[in-house]
Structure formats: C-alpha cells, structure tokens
Structure to design on (165 residues):
C-alpha cells in the first residue's frame, strides 16, 4: 500500500484495483466497491467472519456482558440476545450504516475498523481522535469522522471477496 499526493488530495493505493481517496480528511472508496445498502444481517454475517479480539474479563468497561468486542457486536446486533444494557428493537428500514452511525462505544468501532482490514493509515488517526475526545459519544463521533462507514463497508466487502476466493 502506498499514499500518493496530488494537487487535488491524497490517494491511498490498496493492493489490487481499490483506491481510497482523501479529500479534506474524508476517505471514500470508489463507487464500484460499494453496494447500494447493507442490511443489519449482512453486517452480523460480515462480523462473524472477522478474527476475534483477545478476551477480557466480563464487565470490563467498554465490553458490557461480553469478553470480546466481536461478541459485543454480535450481541448488540441481535435484539433477541438480551445481553445488552437495554432492550433493542430492529426498526424497519434500519441499515448497517445506521447501526455504525449510532454506536456510542468507541471500542466497538475501533475493533471493527481494525478487524475489517481498514488501512493502518486510517486506524491510527481514529485511535488518536478517540483518545483526545472526552465522552463516549464524542469519542465515537471522532472515530467515525476518521473512518466513515463507506470505508468500513469497502474493507468488509474486500474481506468478503477474499474469503470467497
């Protein structure tokens, strides 16, 4: 992977045909790798395929009733699991993008972007941005500004294609 700089911005070249373009600190993968909408079931399936993080003791801050962020995601996405701090409902029309943009636990977001294979050039600034914010909501917002959903879905789709090959 290399970063090329031009007068119009920076481009991160990924192995293969994908390029992530930087324009005013916003990365957007080429439209050819973006589906029109991802469902919550699709996101849960994509997360199941990702490698797990190292387990921690249950009730560790940021993990709720889980020992890994992968389990935290899967429990959070399943409204019938009953493992969260509050009841969740699948509202009609809610997408994976909506879920990503509503999470207020930065550890969930940071694990997902790292496990999905988002380039380190984006993960490291996301970690720094989360560390510099005060509240969970502002930390999560900082992560999403550094790594928007379109970048995450491109990494998940690329991982999906690799698994299928």
């Amino acid at each position: 992977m290399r970063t090329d700089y031009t007068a119009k911005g920076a481009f991160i070249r990924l192995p293969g045909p994908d390029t992530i373009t930087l324009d005013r600190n916003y990365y957007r993968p080429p439209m050819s790798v973006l589906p029109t909408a991802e469902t919550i079931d699709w996101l849960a399936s994509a997360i199941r395929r990702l490698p797990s993080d190292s387990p921690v003791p249950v009730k560790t801050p940021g993990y709720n009733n889980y020992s890994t962020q992968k389990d935290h995601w899967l429990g959070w996405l399943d409204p019938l699991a009953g493992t969260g701090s509050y009841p969740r409902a699948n509202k009609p029309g809610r997408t994976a993008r909506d879920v990503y943009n509503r999470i207020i636990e930065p550890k969930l977001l940071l694990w997902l972007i790292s496990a999905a294979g988002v380039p380190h050039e984006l993960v490291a600034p996301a970690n720094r941005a989360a560390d510099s914010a005060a509240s969970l909501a502002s930390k999560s917002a900082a992560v999403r500004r550094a790594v928007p959903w379109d970048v995450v879905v491109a990494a998940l789709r690329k991982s999906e294609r690799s698994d299928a090959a």
In short: The longest strand covers residues 2-6.
